[in-house]
Amino acid sequence: MTLIIVFISQLSFMLPTKAIEITDYKGKVLYLDFWASWCIPCRKSFPWMNDLREKYSEDELAIVAVNLDKDKSLAQDFLEKYPASFSIAYDPEGKLAKKYQIPGMPSTIIFDKNGKVVDAHSGFFAKKIPEYEAKLEAIIKK
User: Fold this and answer.
1) Quick one: which of 22, 41, 82, 141 has the fewest CB in 10 Å?
2) CB 142 within 8 A of CB 112
3) Burial state string for 36-54 with b = 16 or more CB within 10 A and e = fewer than 16
4) Contacts 24+ apart (CB under 8 A), 109-112
5) Helix (H, G, I), strand (E, B) or coil at 134
6) Is 58 exposed, middle or buried (0-12, 13-18, 19+ CB in 10 A)?
7) Is the pLDDT score of 14 beyond 90?
8) What is the pLDDT of residues 51-84, one digit of tens each?
9) Is residue 121 within 8 Å of residue 134, measured between CB atoms?
10) For residues 67 and 58, what is the distance between their CA atoms, to the nearest angstrom?
């Protein structure tokens, strides 16, 4: 699937629009996270995803967090408070969220190295971090 989304850097300026395809990540695990500026659990998931970015190389794990706010300035304000060391995409029409039937924020879909969906979860709970990490580690090691 090709979807046009705009990347936002952690410094809150817009980068050029780029078409994204899940197949672009073939050969690495893709952690695709959906979030919004009003999402309270996202305030905790972003630091954890930053930790993942430090733990795994970009050759092993790609992390893309897709913002669904209709007003990109809300996403930029969030990123000023909760910076990201991973890729941020902006999808104000929610096309990708609709494709994957995202039930709420945050929601995550994990693709294996062949681009197949192998895990998904909705919400972010600190007490489940060991479970999230164990699943992700197993997928990366395959």
Assistant:
1) 141
2) yes
3) bbebebbeebbeebbebbe
4) 109/32, 110/29, 110/30, 110/31, 110/32, 110/135, 110/136, 110/139, 111/22, 111/25, 111/29, 111/30, 111/32, 112/29, 112/139, 112/142
5) helix
6) exposed
7) no
8) 999 999 999 999 999 999 999 999 999 999 999 9
9) no
10) 21
**What does DSSP assign to residue 71?**
S
Place of tokens 């050759």: 59
Give the list of residues 6+ apart from residue 86 with CB closer than 8 angstroms, or none: 49, 50, 52, 53, 63, 64, 65
pLDDT in tens, 21-39: 788 899 999 999 999 999 9
pLDDT of residue 111: 96
Using CB atoms within 10 A of its CB, is residue 9 exposed (0-12), middle (13-18) or buried (19+)? Answer: middle
pTM of the model: 0.86
Chain segment 90-99, per-residue pLDDT in tens: 888 888 889 8
Nearest to 64 by CA among 107, 98, 34, 24: 34
Question: Quick count: other Cβ atoms within 10 Å of Cβ 69?
Answer: 20
